[in-house]
Amino acid sequence: MKLMGALCIACGAVWGRWQQLSAQRRRRETVRGLIAALRQMAEEIRIARTPMPQLLSCLGRSRGGEAGRFFHAVAAGLESGHALPEAWRLALADLSLPDEPMTVLRELAAGLSGDEEAVYRAVTLAADALERQALAWERQRPEAERRGNALWFSASALLVILLI
Amino acid sequence: MRTGKRGSRYEAAAAILPSRLRQAALELPAELQKAAEELRLRTGGELTALVGEEEFPLCGDVTAEEMETLCDIAADFSRYAAMETLREGYLPVRGGFRLGLCGTVVMKVGAASNLRHITSAALRIGREHPGVAEPLLPRLTEGRRFSNTLILSPPGGGKTTLLRDLVRLLSNGGWRIALVDERGEVAVCHQGIPQMDVGPRTDVLDGCPKALGIPMVLRAMNPQVIAVDEVTAREDIRSMTMAAGCGVGLLATVHAGSVEELCERPLYRELLEHRVFRLAVCIHRTEGQRHYSVEELAE
């Protein structure tokens, strides 16, 4: 019975850790998707001058995952009559990201108006800021993962010891 | 739009304004809404509705931010995509409106490259008046021959409205019309579909400069009549002169108060000297009503 309980705790710990790692991977993928989308957005504004409604719809279609859903929601908000900053902020509410990238994206909402120079600069700066954030996460990742693994292993081991 | 309801056109125009100004614009009495031709805004000044020759104040203290928001809404938050027209001082707005703008012009290599710090805006409420050209049509056609015609009036006189109705009537009458709609104000195409009724046999070349568009439709669409709005450049006149020599009918609008005023302008001398146009429809305004007269253009 005790062995069974210990096994359950070990499985739970593995499952919990796996969930946590998946969430982190999804977060990294979302930020990578957003960076790529913002870079494409800046390029389309500067080179093709694609109007914003078409550009957002295209990003919504071409990008997968949460980033794609975000741009799709912004395009839908714009279509339903919201101003772009408002549609952007509303779509942000459904995005699950840590505070730093959310702040960058919230600030970008205000920068999406004005002439080509202003919009291009705002989008590029936001993409750069997200890229810096993603790089910082990548640098911290091995250490954070080791620490996380150790923490989950120690906690489950402690529970098993207490149980036995 | 095809609703034909004048009040609803005003509401559609008001919807382009930022929310505080929109509320104020919608407080204009219904009768004045029906007759309003423009909504005018000045930074630090008032929002007014132009009805006939009179401006009715709607609210004060229009802020620079509201002007910027208006530009963003008008350009679908894509001012960079509307730069070609913005540098010429206007933005074509979805639904067939036009936003005329004044501000600080940014010059680059001797030409306007941008317009910043908007000081004034005039939102023109384009409307359909089906049937307004009906009494004129018999004067402009002889059997299956169309007399090349210029529509003359000062700005805001109703040239585009008359042109649109003439195109619609000719098209309904079986003529193949090619409409070169450079500013998108005549057919008001949205995703390739004209939002205004320009008739079943009208081929619309949207957003194309007239000087380029006239030879294009001539080669590609085999039109019987080519219609264009607001001839203002020498290149447009050259293209029309060339098209007239190809046996196609021409219908165009020009800013001029009268035939005499037109004759005085050197730009149009070429058209008159070559007898490209035979007739002129002059639009006069008396006591708020528009009157139309057809005049022969002398050599």
Proportion of β residues of chain A? under 5%
Going by CATH, the architecture of the largest domain in chain B would be 3-Layer(aba) Sandwich
Order of helices and strands of chain B: HHHEEEHHEEEHEEEHEEEEHEHEHHEE
Calculate the terminal CA-CA distance of chain A, rounded to whole Å.
Answer: 10 Å
Net shape of chain B: globular
Oligomer: heterodimer
> Radius of gyration of chain B, rounded?
19 Å
CATH topology descriptor of the largest domain in chain B? Rossmann fold
Written description of the protein model:
The complex is a heterodimer of chains A (164) and B (299). Chain A is mainly alpha-helical and 164 residues long. Chain A has helices spanning 2-48, 52-62, 65-79, 84-92, 99-111, 116-163. Chain A has one domain (2-163). With 299 residues, chain B is α/β, with parallel strands linked by helices. Chain B is 31% helix and 33% strand. Chain B has 11 helices and 17 strands. Chain B has helices at 6-14, 19-26, 30-35, 64-74, 83-86, 137-140, 159-172, 210-220, 234-244, 259-264, 266-273; strands at residues 36-42, 47-51, 54-59, 90-93, 97-108, 111-124, 141-142, 145-146, 149-153, 177-181, 189-190, 193-194, 202-206, 225-228, 249-255, 279-286, 289-296. In chain B, strands 13-10-14-15-9-16-17 form a 7-stranded mixed sheet, with helices on both faces. Chain B has a 6-stranded antiparallel sheet with strand order 3-2-1-6-5-4. The A-B interface holds A 45, 49-53, 55, 78, 83-84, 112-116, 119-120 and B 68-69, 72-73, 76-81, 83, 114, 116.
From the structure above, extract its key features:
heterodimer; A: 164 residues; mainly alpha; 6 helices; 87% helix; B: 299 residues; alpha/beta; Beta-Lactamase; Rossmann fold; seven-stranded mixed sheet; six-stranded antiparallel sheet; 17 strands; globular
